[in-house]
Amino acid sequence: MYNDTSENEARIRKNWNVLIFLAGTVILFSVILFKLFSLQYIHYEENFQRSENNRLRRIELIADRGYIYDRNGNVLVRNRPSYQIALQALEMPRKKAARDSIFKKLLNIRDAAGVRLFDSLSLDTAFQRIRWVRTRPVRILEDATMEQVAVIEEHSTELPGVSVIIESRREYPYGTLASHVLGYTSEISEEQLKLPEYESYSQGDRVGQKGLEQEYDKEFRGKNGLKLVEVNASGREVRTLPDVGGYIPPEPGLHMVSTIDLKLQKAAEAAIPDSAKGALVAIDPRNGEILAMVSSPRLDPNIFSLKRRERNKGWAHVALDSMRPLTNRAISGVYPPASIFKLVTSGAGLESGIISETKYYPKACTGGYQYGARYQRCWGVHGNLNVVHALRLSCDVYFYQAGLEIDMARINEFARRFGYGEKLLGIDIPGEKAGWLPDSASFNQRNKRLGWRWARGLILNLSIGQGQMVTPLQQAVFIGSLATNKGVYRPHFMKELQDSQGNVVRRYEPEIIRPGTMKPETHRVLMNAMDSVVNHPGGTGKKGAVPGIRVGGKTGSGEWKKGQKTHAWFAAVAPLDDPQIAVAVIMEAAGGGGSVAAPIAHKVLMAFFGKEEEE
Known about the structure:
This is Penicillin-binding protein 2. The chain is an alpha+beta fold.
């Protein structure tokens, strides 16, 4: 009896086990069948697309950036090929262990000299970035050498997701030449990506920084293309698939023909030592085309196209330099205009009829001028002078008296006609600063914190250009438009933009931005005075003369700090009877304008007119 019961229980238990097994089997196969149904029918399109994505890759083709040429077709900025070692997020294994293995392998790769190609910090940063930068390569080695590329290719099977890509980088064949004008390119920053003007840009894009590179970035940039490629199980490219709409060629950026004259630019840079602080602007006053622009000290924009470590080192060097080589002094340096401003005081007096070519002031120059309790010195003893003689000798005493009689309202009005003042001239590179023409209201407002108030005696200083603020660009524009008497043209660098076939897409049309005219008699007197400054044996600007060319100009020595040498100014235009070029030079804390700045302008004018320097 007992045995029968035990056998029944065993049989029942066995049947239940079989039943549970069969039920489990049915459920398992049901799940498998449902999953197969789901994969092949319900989620067919989604899975097909995933499969295609694993097999196909969309690769963005970066458009070549447009070149910059000088006015005669010489290349100032071009592109060069550059090998980059990069991480491709979509080709990397998803498992952390596999990625860690790739990380370690990269860290252990060495070149022929036994030096590691990658450091752990930059590699770690790159591996972090690919978590959110999925569709673009993340560079881990820029400007790789052929040897480094070969090492990576040797290990390619062990490094899925690590690829060699070829990009174009900016190249400036003349190094520091016109560096402040041309600017440079670098990878777009996080701050820039937040700005509305960069809404069409993405992380990793290279954009123009400073100069023409920044101002015309959208024109130079072009339009990126796209190619669809088939990849193997390792993520390596097998073939391109153009037949299925998988290739959109990139559209290269526009080329610029600039107004810069390479020969003249070289002459200007050779004339100003890189160890000095100074600036030079040469402009065609007939249309506003800038022929040359120098800001010293200079910098080499090629450093921004180097690999990260070298680039950071170069950037730190220029950023921390007390000489401020990153500053374009030609457009953002503001200085007292010094005695060049005496042309403004003279022009205002002649226009208003307060002075004339034959007028002499009762107080002759004996070395200074007494105004109330104040004795204002002159740099020399000049005797009794008219306006032409006073400009030739740059006599302060004459202009102390003239300024008091003319008054600042008339002087400032004449100055604004010819480009001075608080309004920008609108040059087509970023960073331009405006000047300042003081009057009682603006002076009181500007110096309210110091408790200074406008007094009539300030006109003595202002009439000789000590107190206003101007840029070298404003000085060049002023002297040029003063000579043409046909208006102030907007200064500019862009002559025309061309497509890759050389067709002109846009041409700059000269634009008059200030009246820049005066009475014929005023013009005649000022031109005679400027002629006398340079070509008379006693003129302060005789070192700016050019044989066979009628050069007119004005010197200046701007006081800026007690006990320091003055800023040396010289502004010139030539030929006076048919102005083709205007030049303004400033050398900071260098001394007299006639002895320091005029010889620099002389070298530029000699180069412009094709003259040979005498030994």
